Amino acid sequence: MMNTQLTLRLLIERAEKYFPKKEVVTRKASGIFRYMYADFGKRARRLASALQTLGVQRGDRVATFAWNQHRHLEAYFAIPCIGSVLHTINIRLSSEHIAYIINHAEDKVLMIDEDLIPLIEKVKDQIPTVKAFVIMTDNPELPETALHPVYSYEQLLEAGDPGFQFRSDIDENEAAGMCYTSATTGNPKGVVYSHRGIYLHTMCMGLADTIAYSENDTVMPVVPMFHANAWGIPFAAVMFGSKLVLPGAGPTPQILLELIQSEKITAAAGVPTIWTGVLQVLEKQPYDVSSLRAVLCGGSAAPRGLIKAYEEKFGIPFIHAYGMTETAPVASVSRLRSNHQHLPVDRLLDIRSLQGMLVPGLEMRVVGQNGDVNWNGQEMGEVWLRGPWVADEYYNDERSKETFIDGWYHSGDVATIDEEGYLKLVDRTKDLVKSGGEWISSVDLENALMAHPKVFEATVIAVPHPKWDERPVAFVALKPDFKDQVEKQELLDYLAGQFAKWWVPDDIVFLDEIPKTSVGKFLKRSLREQYKDHLIRM
Amino acid sequence: MMNTQLTLRLLIERAEKYFPKKEVVTRKASGIFRYMYADFGKRARRLASALQTLGVQRGDRVATFAWNQHRHLEAYFAIPCIGSVLHTINIRLSSEHIAYIINHAEDKVLMIDEDLIPLIEKVKDQIPTVKAFVIMTDNPELPETALHPVYSYEQLLEAGDPGFQFRSDIDENEAAGMCYTSATTGNPKGVVYSHRGIYLHTMCMGLADTIAYSENDTVMPVVPMFHANAWGIPFAAVMFGSKLVLPGAGPTPQILLELIQSEKITAAAGVPTIWTGVLQVLEKQPYDVSSLRAVLCGGSAAPRGLIKAYEEKFGIPFIHAYGMTETAPVASVSRLRSNHQHLPVDRLLDIRSLQGMLVPGLEMRVVGQNGDVNWNGQEMGEVWLRGPWVADEYYNDERSKETFIDGWYHSGDVATIDEEGYLKLVDRTKDLVKSGGEWISSVDLENALMAHPKVFEATVIAVPHPKWDERPVAFVALKPDFKDQVEKQELLDYLAGQFAKWWVPDDIVFLDEIPKTSVGKFLKRSLREQYKDHLIRM
C-alpha cells in the first residue's frame, strides 16, 4: 500500500479544506477573540515561513512559553510542519528548571506570551542557545524588555507567506514536539513526540469508545497547552474539525463556566482540581451547562465524590482518563461497557471512578512482585506500557535506563486490574505506604477523605516510623464553611468505618491548602520532606 | 517513541484480553452457532499452528473460499498473524477467473466451505500451486471429493496448539491480505493489503465521525468476507470488541431481518441491492428493527428513494459510504455535520445521498479536464486518492501503470465536490454518456428512475449513436405489482420533468431483472455489448 507518512501536515490541511469556517475561540483579558480554521491555516503558514526566515531549520527546537490561545495553536502546527520541534515549556516551573530545559533542549527560538516575559527575563543570561525571542501580543508596540533580540509575532506573520507549503518530505518518525516532565529528584526529563506518535494518538482520541472527538463537538482544553500537548486536544480538534475554545491566561472557575455557557462547550478537559473548583462555583450559582456531553478528567485520580456530584447533581457525564507525559498522554479511559447498562447507579459510579480500559493501540502489563498480577481487582503491580505513542527514552538523559526496560515503559504507577480489565490506580511506587511489610494505598485513603462532605482536598503520605518502617499521615484542607470546625477524631472514625484498622493514618494534619505541583497535582515530595520526623516526634 | 509495528496481532490480542465473553454468532442452515472471543482466539491460535504444520511459511498465500462464518473469521487473523497472506477469493467469479487468481496469487493452501467444493472441483486440474485443500464443515466426516489432498478444518484445529504465539516480528508493511477486483476487460487485478493499511483503516472505522464502531455495537457484515475484507468490519469488531453476527451462506432478506430482530443488530452493512431487498420484505411484514443505529451502504450509489424509505418509514439512519477494493475499502462517508442540523428534512436526505466527506487519513483530488475542479457541486472530475490504506499497485500486474500515477490512485470514478467538500459520484469514467461533446451522468438518470414509485431497479448506459456519438438508454425492472403495466412514455415524461431535454434517454428497455456482477453491481458491460446496435437499428 502507499507509503504515506503520518505527519501533522495531514491534520492542518484537513481543517483548511473541510472545516474552513469552523471557529477557534480565544478568551483574552480584553474579551473573546474568534477566527476560523481558514484564518488559522493561513496564519500557521505565515508563521512557518517566518520561522524559516529567522533561520529555524529542520530538527531545530522552537519553544513556546504561553497560555492556551490561538497563536499557541498556530505554533503547534507551524513548527512541526517545517520539520522543527515544538517544545512546550511549562510556565509554572522554577526559574532553575526553566533555564535547565531550554539549555537541555537547545531551543533556538522562544515564543512568549507578553504577560510571561518577566519569567523569561529572570533566566535570560543563562540560555545562550536562544537566538530570537518572539513576543505574542495584541499590542502593536513591543513592550520594554531586557530580552534580545525580540520580534513581534504579528509583525513576523505580516511579513510571512500565507501560501507557504508545509514540508511533504517529513518522515513520520521525526520529532514533532517535546515536553519535559518533573522528576522525583533532579532536573525535569524530556519526552520527544514523533509525528507518527501524535498522529496515532489523535486517531485514538476520535474513537467512539475513547473520547469520540467529532466535528459536532466544541472542545475546551483547560489542561494547559504546555502540559503533554493539552492531552492532544488541539491536534484532535484540528483533525476532526471540532470548534475549539481556548480559555487563555489563568482561567478561574467562573470564567470556565461562562465559556461553557456562552460557547456551548460539549467536551472540556482538565485535572481534578479544576473540576473541584468549578463544582464549588456551580453549586452556588446557576450556569447553563447542558451542552456538555463530557468532562474529561485526568492528570491525577478524580475522587468518586467529584464524579458523583457532576453526574448526579448536574447530569454531566464524567470521563476519567489516565496517562502521562511519556504516553502523549492518554493510556486508558473509563467508559461504561454494554454489559454495565443494567447495573445500579452506585456500581456505575465505581466503574467511572476507575482509570478504565487500555485504549486501542497500546499494550499493558501490570507487574507485581511475582510477575503479571491476576485480573482480580486485588493484586497490586506496576503499570508497564508500550505502543506507538509511548516514549522509548528520555531525551539525552542517563535516567532513561531506569524507566525504559526491555521495550516497556515502567510508569512507576501501582495499580490493580479487575476481571474486565479495568485499571485502578492504587499509588505511585514511591508513594505506597509500606507498613510492617504490607502495602497501604495512599490514594484509597485520599479518595475516602475527599468524599467526606466537609473535606475540600486531602493527601496521604508515608512517614518514617520507628516500629512499622512507614505509617500513613493524612493532610486535609477543609471546605471554607467547615474551617476550624472539624476534629481529627471525626475523620479518623470516618476512615475506620471503611478500612482495616492498620490502614487508618496515624495522624491528620489540617492545612489551609494542600501544596501542589506546577501542573496541579499534590506535591507529596515537599510534605514528605517537611514531615519526615513527624511520627518520631509524636 | 516506541517502534511498535501496527499489526493484526494487536487486534486479536485485544479481543482476547478485553472482550473474552463477547459473542461471535454465525447463522448456519442448522441454526445459530455462537461462541465467544475467548474461543475465537484459541481456535485462531490452533489454526495458526496447524497451518505451520501444513508447511505454510511467512509470505505464503493462503486462500479462503467461503461465506461469512466463524471459521472464515479465524482465518482472517490466523493467516496474517503468522506472517502469511490471507487471500479471500470471490466465490461468484467465473471458473476461469477463479483458476486465474489462484495461479496468479500462487496460493499454497485453499480453505473451502463444504457447500462450495464443487466450484473448486471444476478448476482442480488448473491450480498446481495448491498443496492442500482444507474443508470447513461441521460434519465429522469429510465429504467425497475429487480434491486432493484434503484436510478437515476441525481435525487440524484439534491437533493445533491453543497457546500458540502469534509472530511478534512482523513488519507493519508486510502483506496481511489480498483481494482481486474485476477489471473492465481481462483478468481480475490483485490488491495487496499491508498490516499497517488494515490497522489504520480499522482505527478510521472506529472514529465517531465515520462509522463509530464500538464495544456497544452488534455488527453484521452482509457484505461478503470475500469482498474487500467485508469493508473491514471483521477487523473493527475484533479491535473494538463489538458483538459480531455473520449471516452465513446466501442470506435472504428474511434471514437478515430475523437476525436483526433476534440478535439486536445495531450496525449492518451491505450493497444497495441488499437493502432494496430487505426493504421490500419489511414493507410487507413487520420486524423489530429498532436496535439498528446504522445501515451502512456502499459498493455502488444508493438511490435517494432507498435512503428516504429507511429513514422516514422505519427511522433507520442510513450511512452512505464510498470506497473500493483498492482503498481497503472505505474512502468517504456521508454523515451530517453540525451546521446541517437545522436544514429541512429533504435537504438532509440530499446530503445523505452523497458519497460524503473524505475520511480522516486519506487525501483526495477531483481532477477534470483543466486540473482540480472547483468545489461547486457542478464541475466533474476523476477521483484520485492517496493514503496509508490505498494500494500503490496491482499485484504483479502490467496494468498498474494505468491506474497508479505519480503517487495517486486514479479511481476511474467521476464525481463533483460541493462547497463543503461532499463528494457526489456522477459516473465511472467509462460509463459517462458523451452526447454531442457534452457529458451526461448515467448515475443521475438511474437515481431518478429508481426514485419512481413503480420502478424496482434501473440502469443507464451509453449506446453508440450515428449523430451524437453516444446517447443514453435506460433499462428498467418494475416492481412486481406494476409489471407490464407501465409505458415507456410515462417514465420518459417523468425524467423530462427533472432533466434537460438532451439528457432524457433515447429509449427505455424493460427487463425482468437488471443483470448484476458477482458483487451485486449492475453489469453494464454485458448490456453495452448486447445493445451496442440498439440505436442504429431503431
Automatic annotation (TrEMBL), chains A, B:
<feature type="domain" description="AMP-binding enzyme C-terminal">
    <location>
        <begin position="445"/>
        <end position="521"/>
    </location>
</feature>
<dbReference type="Pfam" id="PF00501">
    <property type="entry name" value="AMP-binding"/>
</dbReference>
<comment type="similarity">
    <text>Belongs to the ATP-dependent AMP-binding enzyme family.</text>
</comment>
<dbReference type="GO" id="GO:0006631">
    <property type="term" value="P:fatty acid metabolic process"/>
</dbReference>
<feature type="domain" description="AMP-dependent synthetase/ligase">
    <location>
        <begin position="14"/>
        <end position="395"/>
    </location>
</feature>
<dbReference type="InterPro" id="IPR000873">
    <property type="entry name" value="AMP-dep_synth/lig_dom"/>
</dbReference>
<protein>
    <submittedName>
        <fullName>Long-chain-fatty-acid--CoA ligase</fullName>
    </submittedName>
</protein>
<dbReference type="GO" id="GO:0016874">
    <property type="term" value="F:ligase activity"/>
</dbReference>
<keyword id="KW-0443">Lipid metabolism</keyword>
<keyword id="KW-0276">Fatty acid metabolism</keyword>
<dbReference type="InterPro" id="IPR042099">
    <property type="entry name" value="ANL_N_sf"/>
</dbReference>
<dbReference type="InterPro" id="IPR045851">
    <property type="entry name" value="AMP-bd_C_sf"/>
</dbReference>
<keyword id="KW-0436">Ligase</keyword>
<dbReference type="Pfam" id="PF13193">
    <property type="entry name" value="AMP-binding_C"/>
</dbReference>
<dbReference type="InterPro" id="IPR025110">
    <property type="entry name" value="AMP-bd_C"/>
</dbReference>
